[in-house]
């Protein structure tokens, strides 16, 4: 069992390192002024509104309709919701003495992982299209809660919740399109499938390059100063994913679904924490520190937790 664990650890670690090396391309591009954060911010819209939906829809088209996959679709949505609700419960116990605005940043960071920009590409690398299939359900739940609970927290209750955005956002819409295509087993012409597959394949490298530009603009000196940031790293990278891994196992989840959900649950703080903090005039420095430190630590924590999921 130890040999299997170490073998899985090496496999996952290699995939994580590859993704972060791609992120370093974005880091270098920003530092050398070839492709700066302002450019990357525009590219985020392209990724989130077009490329990510192509990747998600393509994964649904690639799945064979079986009882196992239909059950997996339902179970993965429910478990993604359970993971977020557990994280919300954990967050509600923390930072009670801080201001509402500061507490909102910490709570958002605890609850929301980098599900679309890091977890989904990693699931694709480790598990393949089935990994994207299950991770997409996690992204859909993420979007619904991020546009409600998340925005309420990070705006300190000042932002009005747009009910349209609950389901009319690219991540959720692509899942809502993908589900009937999967259930009806729609067969598109090969040239359309190939087009969607090629566009969807851009998601991983482009998302990580953009992520690298965000890291390039962080103040690394502040990453390791605040004890509160270490505490959030512990919750986001270790406590929540490890507990949820054992909950998944107790429920009877296994195989590729277990790995994909574990990857999503164990990812670092969502990149959009910093973007939302800026949008709602909250602490962008703190949010960047949370994203930066957890991203660095996740290089070590994610391979261990995902390898554990593959052997227990």
Mean pLDDT: 90
Shape, please?
globular
Q: Uncertain spans, ≥5 residues at pLDDT below 50?
A: none
Residue fraction in strands:
under 5%
Secondary-structure element order, as H and E?
Answer: HHHHHHHHHHHHHH
**What is the rounded Rg?**
18 Å
**Helical stretch tally:** 14
How many runs of DSSP E, i.e. beta strands?
0
Instruction: Please describe the biggest sheet, giving its number of strands, its sense, and whether it closes into a barrel.
Output: none
Quickly give the structural class: mainly alpha
Helix content: over 70%
In whole angstroms, the N-to-C terminal distance is 9 Å
Can you characterise this structure?
The chain has 14 helices and no strands. By secondary structure, it is mostly helical. Helix 1 (2-31) packs across helix 5 and helix 12 packs antiparallel against helix 14 (284-311). The termini are close together. 48% of the residues are buried.
Characteristic key phrases:
single chain; mainly alpha; 14 helices; 0% strand; globular
């Amino acid at each position: 069992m130890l040999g299997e664990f170490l073998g899985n650890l090496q496999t996952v670690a290699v995939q994580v390192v590859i993704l972060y090396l791609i992120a370093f391309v974005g880091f270098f591009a920003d530092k050398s002024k070839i492709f700066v954060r302002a450019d990357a911010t525009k590219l985020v819209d392209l990724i989130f509104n077009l490329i990510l939906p192509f990747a998600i829809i393509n994964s649904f088209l690639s799945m064979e309709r079986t009882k196992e996959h239909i059950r997996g679709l339902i179970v993965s949505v429910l478990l993604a919701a359970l993971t977020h609700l557990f994280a919300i419960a954990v967050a509600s116990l923390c930072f009670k003495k801080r201001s509402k605005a500061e507490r909102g940043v910490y709570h958002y960071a605890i609850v929301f992982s980098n599900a679309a920009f890091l977890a989904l590409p990693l699931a694709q690398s480790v598990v393949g299209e089935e990994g994207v299939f299950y991770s997409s359900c996690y992204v859909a739940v993420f979007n619904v809660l991020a546009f409600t609970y998340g925005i309420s927290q990070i705006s300190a209750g000042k932002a009005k919740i747009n009910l349209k955005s609950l389901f009319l956002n690219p991540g959720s819409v692509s899942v809502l399109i993908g589900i009937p295509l999967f259930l009806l087993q729609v067969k598109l012409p090969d040239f359309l499938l190939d087009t969607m597959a090629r566009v969807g394949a851009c998601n991983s490298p482009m998302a990580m390059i953009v992520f690298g530009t965000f890291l390039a603009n962080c103040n690394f000196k502040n990453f390791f100063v605040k004890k509160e940031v270490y505490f959030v790293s512990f919750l986001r990278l270790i406590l929540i994913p490890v507990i949820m891994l054992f909950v998944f196992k107790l429920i009877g989840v296994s195989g590729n679904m277990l790995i994909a959900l574990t990857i999503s649950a164990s990812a670092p703080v969502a990149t959009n924490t910093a973007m939302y903090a800026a949008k709602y005039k909250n602490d962008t420095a703190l949010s960047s520190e949370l994203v930066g430190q957890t991203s660095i630590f996740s290089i070590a924590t994610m391979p261990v937790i995902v390898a554990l999921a593959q052997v227990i």
